[in-house]
Amino acid sequence: MVNKIMTAKQAVKKYINNSDMVFVGGFGHAIPFAIAQEIVRQKICQLHLVKTGADIVFDMLVASGCAQSLTCGWYGNPGIGVSYIISQAVASGKLKLTESTNFSMMLRLHAGKLGIPFIPSPILSDGDLADSISEVKSIICPFSNTKIKAHGALNPDVAIVHAQRSDINGNVQLWGSIGDTLDGCEASKKIICSVEEICEQDEILLSPHLTKLPAHKVVAVIKQPFGAYPSYLHGFYQRDEKYYENHSTNSKDTSKVQEWLESVVFRHHDFDSYIQSLPDELIRELKWSGT
Amino acid sequence: MKTETLNKNNQGPLVLDDSILQTRAAFMATTEITDHQTIFVGIGLPCLVAHITQNHTTPNCHLVFESGLTEVVCKTQPLSTASANIAKTSKMHGSMLDVFSMLQRGEIDVGLLSAAQIDIFGNLNSSKLTTNSGKIISLPGSGGAHDISVLANKVIVVMPADPRRFVNNVDYITSPNNPYRNRKGVVGVATPDAYFSFETGQAVLQKIYSDRDAEEINASLNWDTKISSKLETISPPSNELFKDASIFLNTS
């Protein structure tokens, strides 16, 4: 079996190209910040990002100029508010935004996972969003002869995801809140995954029910402790609430956005160096507690 | 935040803090929920409704969040539908597809939502607002709101009594009150003062707290509504419930 261990730098360089359609894993949990920050560092551009609900990692990919378009059901700072960065990028014409709903995005990714062209659903039949998405079209149901919407499949070029652990071959184990991660990953042509721990194959064999991503689609396994910071990872660390709150304030101001990118991405040659720059006390405070 | 509201005897404004107003709105919403129902919970005020159902009014309800978290015990306030505090108290970590499938199959009895704007027909806006000067303010968008409004067996909206948010026509219809098949769609909206029903197609003041005046409350919002001939009076929540809700709102 192939050893797929590599650094984020190597994985992004090898597997993510300009103009790719990228699915970003994690939903309020396990957001792949480490891989996203490497995309920013390498200045990959013209990406088309697809997602149900877009967290502040999308702010980073948009503010840095990596993203050219975004198709999603929601965008903002979860639990805190709106995304000033995405709103401004849309208003200035730098970003093409296609707004949808979370379930429609989910169905489109699931159709991609199933390898079929669309999934029918009555959602988006009415309302102002209904006719604004070119990949959601009216069809006639052959059984009831009534109108229904066809939600067109999405097959992203690459999925980026963070998980708890994997072996060196890409048998990736993840648990906790799942969101759209599994469908998005399986719909994608290949998966780049960062993990907290690399484990032995014997350990995977003891808990194969936790293996959620099929190894044949995983092209890169990156050992990246704290790789979902500042979001949380079930069983490992909590969300850094202060980071999200500060981001909400600072992201209103264009100069502070550049400072943010500088301080979390460009000042560091990799994600480890960024994590090492954080106060030890913060790392201790974020330690996972409870079940 | 302090908000002024009118009391029943028009003895001048009563100043209530935000936690009391939120609790009154949430408790009013629970009067439309019966025990053992399965509830799809949105973020914000809907979480307080969910907490009150579990701790006080209908303890056997099943709570589902769009992240896929199922059979959640809503002890502390989640900031998002996938927050760690509810992931830790969830008995099933399903996927987003799992829970939206429940919704589409018709297994969700109640969808709980909030919105930036609601109109007299029960249409909801969570996408964009147009200011008086014509400026457009972008909001985070539908998320699952559109899907819940179309697919849940019924939807209860819970909102602060801000007249700017109660309009005759919303600026943008994110979630149309046009449900799938025989589902009921948005059946009503709960506020800190009252509950307006959409069951006749247009908002009608259906329930009022016993310490509020129906005429005043009906006139206080920026929409053309009537008072139901079968207006029900609801007693405000107990002090114990207010206290518990205040603790909930201060923990996340």
Sum this structure up briefly.
The complex is a heterodimer of chains A (291) and B (252). Chain A has 291 residues and is of the alpha/beta class.
Structural class of chain B: alpha/beta
Task: Report the end-to-end length of chain B measured between terminal Cα atoms.
Answer: 18 Å
> What is the CATH superfamily label of the largest domain in chain A?
Glutaconate Coenzyme A-transferase
CATH topology of the largest domain in chain A: Glutaconate Coenzyme A-transferase
Radius of gyration of chain A: 19 Å
Number of distinct helices of chain B: 7
**Rg of chain B computed from alpha carbons, rounded to a whole number of angstroms:** 17 Å
Main sheet overview of chain B: 8 strands, mixed
**The CATH class of the largest domain in chain A:** Alpha Beta
Largest interface between protein chains, with number of residues from each side:
A-B, 53 and 46 residues
How much of the polypeptide of chain A forms β-strand, as a percent range? Answer: 15-25%
Q: Give the topology string of chain A: H per helix, E per strand.
A: HEHEHEHEHEEEEEHEHEEHHHH
* CATH-scheme architecture of the largest domain in chain A: 3-Layer(aba) Sandwich
How are strands sequenced across the largest beta sheet of chain B?
4-3-7-12-14-15-16-17
Largest sheet data of chain A: 9 strands, mixed
List key phrases describing it.
heterodimer; A: 291 residues; 11 helices; B: 252 residues; alpha/beta; Glutaconate Coenzyme A-transferase; 8-stranded mixed beta sheet; disordered N terminus
Describe, in plain words, how this protein is organized in 3D:
The complex is a heterodimer of chains A (291) and B (252). With 291 residues, chain A is an alpha/beta fold. The radius of gyration of chain A is 19 Å and the shape is globular. Chain A contains eleven helices and twelve strands. Chain A has two domains: 8-102 and 155-285, 3-Layer(aba) Sandwich (Glutaconate Coenzyme A-transferase), CATH 3.40.1080; 118-152, no CATH class. Chain A has helices spanning 8-15, 33-41, 57-63, 84-91, 102-114, 181-187, 201-206, 241-250, 254-266, 271-276, 280-285, and strands at 21-24, 47-54, 67-75, 96-99, 118-121, 136-140, 147-152, 158-166, 172-173, 191-198, 211-213, 218-223. In chain A, α1 packs across α2 (33-41), α3 runs parallel beside α4 (84-91) and α5 (102-114) packs across α6 (181-187). In chain A, strands 1, 2, 3, 4, 8, 9, 10, 11 and 12 form a nine-stranded mixed beta sheet that branches. A three-stranded antiparallel beta sheet of chain A has the order 5-7-6. With 252 residues, chain B is an alpha/beta fold. Chain B has helices at residues 18-30, 45-57, 84-87, 96-105, 145-151, 214-220, 239-249; strands at residues 2-6, 13-17, 38-41, 62-65, 69-72, 90-93, 110-113, 117-119, 124-125, 128-130, 136-138, 154-158, 166-167, 186-190, 194-197, 204-209, 226-234. In chain B, the strands form five sheets. Chain B has an eight-stranded mixed beta sheet, sandwiched between helices. The longest helix of chain B has 13 residues, at 18-30. The interface between A and B is large, with 53 and 46 residues.
